[in-house]
Every structure is written in structure tokens, then in C-alpha cells.
Design a protein that fits this description.
By secondary structure, this protein is mainly alpha-helical. It contains six helices and two strands; from the N terminus they run ααααββαα. Helix 2 packs across helix 5 and helix 3 packs across helix 4. The two termini are about 30 Å apart.
Length: about 150
Amino acid sequence: MESVDEGMCVTFLVRHAWLSMRSAVAVALAEHDLSVQQYGTLLVLRELPGQTIAEVGRKVGTARQSANELITGMERSGLLERRPNPSDRRTHQIYLTPTGHSRLAEATPKVRAVEEDLESTFSPTDRATARAWLARMVNPEVPIDEP
């Protein structure tokens, strides 16, 4: 059998890892009446409040139209609110409501527990290495911690 790092397509491995994680996380989030995309949207807006629909869409990996539908549904559920964008009258800025903050706070421990379970066979070093690699793939400017 060939080793993981020989001949395997990294893109294919990452996609399958994501699909496995997404399925496990979706089960945990269902208890909080959230989808994976809704949870991701709440995370993005907690870290970067005031994003436009297009910016949220880019960050959660969806087209602007799909992001608009996602935001509209979350707004109806009381998780988000739109506010006029003072620098562009054609767009709105999106913010979490108190309900959105609460739902995110309630769901996050469940998501973390799923992640802990999925990583349970990793050594602490392997876990840190995997997380550092993923962070660098998302943002190449992230500094590498030297041992």
C-alpha cells in the first residue's frame, strides 16, 4: 500500500476530509437548528461584523445569490440583521443579533466536541501540524512557528 504522502492528490484528500467533517458537524448543529453554512456565517460575522452579502458569500464559499438566500433565511430566523452600508447605498452590512450570538455560543461546544473526536487519534504534534498547514493554505501570510 502506498503511503499517504506518495501519489495521493492533496486536493482529493482535503475534499474527502471536509465531507467527512461536514457530515459529523451537521449532526451536532442540527440540535441547534443550524446548518453548516449557517454556522460558518455566524462565525464569519462574529469575527468580521458588518460584512456585505458578497463578502460573506466569499468567506463561506458560496455564490452571491446563494449567500443572499442564506442571509435572508437567517434574518427571518432572527439570527442576523441587515443595516445600511454608510459607504455604499447599494449594499447592506450584516450583523449578528443577540439571538445569533447565543445560538453560536450554544453550538460551538458541540462542534468542538466533534472536532476533538475526529482528531482523537492524532498526537498533539500531528494536530498542531495539521492545523498550521490548513491555516497556511487559507492564508499564506500566516507565520510558521519554528520549534
